[in-house]
Amino acid sequence: DGGITQSPKYLFRKEGQNVTLSCEQNLNHDAMYWYRQDPGQGLRLIYYSQIVNDFQKGDIAEGYSVSREKKESFPLTVTSAQKNPTAFYLCASSIGPRGLAGGPGEQFFGPGTRLTVL
Amino acid sequence: SQQGEEDPQALSIQEGENATMNCSYKTSINNLQWYRQNSGRGLVHLILIRSNEREKHSGRLRVTLDTSKKSSSLLITASRAADTASYFCAINTGNQFYFGTGTSLTVIP
After folding, report:
1. CA atoms within a 13 Å half-sphere pointing along the CA-CB vector of B32
2. Do A37 and A6 touch, CB atoms closer than 8 A?
3. Which residues of chain B have pLDDT under 50?
4. Are A115 and A9 in contact (CB under 8 A)?
5. How far is CA B8 from CA A19, A51, B23, B26, B66, in A?
6. How close A39 gets to chain B, by Cα (Å)?
7. Does the CB of A8 have a partner CB in chain B at under 8 Å?
8. Partner-chain contact A107 B97, CB within 8 Å
9. Which of A12, A88, A101, B10 could form a disulfide with A37 if both were Cys (CB 3.0 to 4.6 A apart)?
10. Of B30, B52, B99, the CB nearest to A43
11. Nearest in space to A6 (alpha carbons), one of A103, A74, A96, A99
């Protein structure tokens, strides 16, 4: 049963703490992405990775960090430097650069993690 | 901003009617994609249209793309209550995707 999973579904954090959100895919996709969604808003790109051991900053990378040590996994750490971390976080994957001509193809999304800072 | 912008922000229709939502963008694209999001859930891919295509169909969905006007439209025909959701366009430029703020569609039974 192929797909992309995120955990936990809900996460509460005290101010000043770092937290790590998990994202795993078994779709054999090269590319993975992290987005942030605020209420009533679209998705904003935090980081993306086209291949293992390589990742690029998106539009709102400040206060976040990622790693891509395995093809299947792309964890996101929300650091204490992120000033307003309360949001809905979505992970996605796509086939990546080796995909169809004209772009990396469709994205498959996980169910999301809702992070609340207390 | 390179993100798409959807119009209208909200749309309410009766079951059986057609729903049309639009997306405008500012940059050159590889392709444009439409996604659906039910409240509090992840996004689900609906349809992808490449920059050299003008129209695509998938079931009750019809997407058009006008690259000269930098705009796209999504038409859902014969809407159902289950179509109630937010719909987002995403423009693909290179390796990134840029999402709009979405159209919230409510289909009244």
Report:
1. 32
2. no
3. none
4. no
5. 37, 37, 9, 18, 18
6. 10
7. no
8. yes
9. A88
10. B99
11. A74
